[in-house]
Amino acid sequence: MNVNEVVKFVDQIVFDKTGKHLDDIQTAVVEGTWQRKTYDDIAQECKVTKNHVGDIGAELWQLLSQILEEDIKKNNFRSTFERLQTTSLPIIIQNNNKQNNYHSFYFGSSNIYQANKNSQENNQHQSEPIYYDLTLAPQIIEFYNRESELQDIYNWASTQSTSLISVLGLFGIGKTTLVKRFVDLYLEQFEVIIWRSLKHPKSLNLLIDDLLNICQLEAKADISDKLKQFYNLLTEKRCLIILDDIHHIFVKSEFAGRYQSQYQDYQNFFTMIAKIKHQSIVILISQEKCAEMESLDEELYPIKLLELSALYDEEILKNTVLKDEGNWLKLIELYEGNLRYLKSIASSIKNVFDGKVSEFLAENELIITKDIRFSLSQVFNRLSPIEQKITLELCKFAQAVSREDLKATLNLSSSDFINGLESLQQRYLIEKIKNDKIMFKLSPVFRQYVINICYR
């Protein structure tokens, strides 16, 4: 959060409470206090007395204390606002200027967003509560060149014909960042926004309890009744529910998208979200694709699928203190436009090569850092034995190979071969290339990792 964003936020909430924007002196007090200036410094800049600035400041801190229900003073103003930003929770204020209207203000990573909700019933204005829980959502520091994908999500979410959106791709490709960017930009379009991660999965029963509790609904005892409550919520309110890290409810060492037995009821849950008519959106974020995430005809079913590809944008490396900018694109291409790979390798280049990308590239080897190795070991360990066998065989081919040539080198039935090849695609570890023949190519970084651990 920078000083301009703080001034904008304070101006918004003060106007919403009093009907008056900050005047020049009040603005100077906010700016100066954020920059840790004394009242004497602020007074000199504004060409007024120190006592006058002190009086203005005291009135402003008192007003902010009432609005935010916090004890705001000059000496804790910055730390309090930094804490409010970190919580990612909305600040809901009853407006004293516009009759019976509630405004919800939210600290974003680079902007501050405001959501308004008015309703009229029986010729009387009544306020509608807005429920946001973004505690587990990440803070967005940088957002790179995903405008077209962002537009896709917006277009789908803007229609009543879409209810389930899946954002898929290998780790580090930017799935979570993209979805959080969408939330930040279009927060005001939803009455309920809840972000949850299944990295440490909980049962569907407990998840529904949690979602209903956020909306101040007392969950029924029976899971069927709870689900009915939840589906009613999706129908009555415009909700956005984000479930991140979906792949953690799938079984390891089997083909992609197979549910663990204790999470099997999620399969029916996702299916029902798409089947039941409602006005809400559920977004699933995953490294693996399952059958419930796609349909054969997107025109007929309210299911949309967004598979993220590599991001080849030199802006990715702007804040990494790397040198030799002319070689940045080569480095990005070498590491497949994967932000996590590039963050790790940039650190190594900084520490070992003093940031000189040209010297690193002169090694003429695809280096797998310990961080990349750890991340890919988790991916490799999720593979079924058949997928591992196909992967080891693919490592022998530096270039793309046809399905027929690959199958000829493997002692697998057609069923196992086809299922294994499809599952590797559903994990985003192999690329399908359409030429005269359909060709398959293992992800270069993943291939190098497998060679390192299995052939050396």
What report would you give on this structure?
This protein is of the alpha/beta class and 456 residues long. It folds into four domains: 3-118, no CATH class; 147-307, 3-Layer(aba) Sandwich (Rossmann fold); 314-367, no CATH class; 374-454, Winged helix-like DNA-binding domain superfamily/Winged helix DNA-binding domain (Arc Repressor Mutant, subunit A, Orthogonal Bundle), CATH 1.10.10.10. The chain has 18 helices and 14 strands. The strands form four sheets. A six-stranded parallel sheet has the order 6-8-9-10-7-11, with helices on both faces. It has a three-stranded antiparallel sheet with strand order 1-2-3. A three-stranded antiparallel sheet has the order 12-14-13. Helix 8 (204-214) packs across helix 9 (223-236). The longest helix is centred in the N-terminal third of the chain and has 19 residues, at 50-68. The radius of gyration is 26 Å and the shape is flat. The two termini are 48 Å apart. 34% of the residues are buried.
